[in-house]
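Late entry, evening session. Most of the bench is empty. Finally got around to the prediction I had been postponing all week. Sequence below, unchanged from the version circulated by S.P.
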Amino acid sequence: KQPDYKNLKVFGCVCYVHVDAALRNKFQDKAIQCRFVGYADEYKGFRCYDPTTKRIKTSRNVIFDEHSFDNTNEMPMTIESYDPWTSTQLFNADPVIENDVPQSEDSERAIQSSDMAQSENQEDPTQSSSHHENNNEEQSNDAHRYSGLIYSRRLRDRDAHSEEDNMPHLRRSQCIRHPIHRWVSYDSLSLDFQLFMAKVGKEEEPTSFDQASKSHHWRKAMKEEMDALHECGTWEIVPRPHEKNVVGFKWVYKIKYKPDGSIERHKARLVAKEFTQQYGEDYDETFSPVIKMGTIRVIISLAVEYGWRLHQMDVKNTFLHGDLREEVYMEQPPGYTKGDSHAWVCKLRKSIYGLKQASRSWFDSFSCKIQECGFRRCPLDHSLFIYRKENIFTLLLIYVDDIVITGNSEKHIEEAKVLMMQNFKMKELGDLRFFLGVEIDRHNNRLTLTQQKYTLDLLRKSGMSDCKPVGTPSVLNQRLSAQDGELYEDPTQYRSIVGALQYLTFTRPDIIYAVNQVSQFMHAPRDTHMDAVKRILRYLKGTAGDGLVYGKSENITTGHQLMTFTDADWAGDPDQRKSISGFCIFIGRNLVSWSCRKQNAVARSSTEAEYRCMAAGTAEVTWVRHLLEDIGEKIKTSMLMCDNQSAINIAFNPVQHGRTKHIEIDQHFVRQKVEDKEIQPIYVRTDEQVADLFTKGLTKERFWFLKGKLYMVQNHAQLEGGC
């Protein structure tokens, strides 16, 4: 039987798409004139481009005029680079420009054919310089010749881009449709911070010893590191023991910046490979307190509320201050070997970076010294140290070798710096500007936390710098399953990207749900899971500079107002049918804590799922409350916002019944906090429930509405990209 070609139509021809009677009145046309651009992938239908609405329509009821081509400039240069938004449709609440017109295989073939034709013309030696002058006419003819595909550029501001319009058009194979620079903007930042961000990241950090050894800056940094190690007597050279484990090492390179964005120094670290250590032989106890991210945000919020300065200090050769109790051997660094490196190794006397027990040794040394200076360790977070005497109040945060100090007395802060410098080798970095990969921009009574440099580095390392942005990090109502799709070919890459995304949630609560979803499949990622990761990266490209905004509240002298939003997606996990809990906590208008996680047990009703979520939110806000009280702050009110009235009634109703007896512990915990007046459950309408952002995929309009309620800065360019 011969194949049937009756459904094959001429690409780019004029077509008329039928409009259903329910979508029109009797005075409107029964069909819309469009352009044929391809076929539907999942079902039978034709894809037609409507130049009026700038959308692709898919329909079976189409009449074709295969001999007519409407050669207007309404068609985008490529189908996938089409941008549906016009210059008058930009607004701050939804600045991400999402492509509603996906790429079709037919358009790819037509474009490739056109490129081949242009390439043949360019290789013809008889071509003269007039070829470029008639470039637009030739492209139009080529487009008409190859199925009527028209090349055109859609620019939002033609006056601002007039020079680009006069330049000769690039072939598609040479053009980046969505260059990253069109999506990065510093307009909403203060002038000082704009200068800072413009300088940060200009020089790339090497990733290997071979790369670093080619630069005199990094050679000098490595020499300084080795001199410091020898000065402290970190190791001695001994013959290689055959019965002992020898730990490997690697060089890590970082650039330290001054508050104005200029390079303060190039920093090289010799780091041991902890994964080569063996338990019971070269390490035993490894636990070391690490500051909670919520604590950092709470302290920053207080500093903004009271107008305190945030000072930053860096500890030189941090882990060299800790004594090593175990017997540990390490390979000799290349370029600094003594004798045969295969026969001689380093026997460590003091801990160095990378060892499993190094953090514990350093923290014990620092904790003892700082408490001798009058500070006390906070029982709720051991990495927070508090000094209070009469009217003097100082807070000190430590995260490995980075220290942040703030308080109401600049004089005491300077005294504390002097005391620490007497005991440890430290360097003062001025006002807090760049901390743990987070950019801090402070201007008047406003402070923003962003991770723009970290986001751009992640896009570059994952090969997604030129991807097409989308408006949301997750698909509407999509639930990932462990059984969907085929196993992903490179699980190591998947785990690396997802791990980086988890750290990005420090300032990006808008991606917490999407990241939580893809984090559940680290053991066996599949193609569908990697597609979800790529969508998050595409969303991040369009919002690379977004972050949290902290500001002052009114009447904080009477106490702080805590507000907790909780929400649950009942049976949201398709594999185990467990519910998804999400909550966020505000101090005044400043967002300090949020969470999205799967519940431990299966809920038998939506009320039970919501009540478990209330218990999780209550536990977190109780911790925040106690932290503020330990610091010495007053709490005015603490409200728990929930959109499930049954769950709220359980919190007040002392009568137990069949629906709640299996959540008795959570029930008593929440009810006790209610009776103690530590929290006040309040009903909130579903459309005003901010925590809805943390439990499910939403539409773009709903997503950006709730994102605005998180007080997130929208610091990205509002330009069309591509060509």
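Two things to note before I forget:
The two ends are 45 Å apart (CA to CA).
Residues 73-173, 716-723 have pLDDT under 50 and may be disordered.
Will write this up properly tomorrow.
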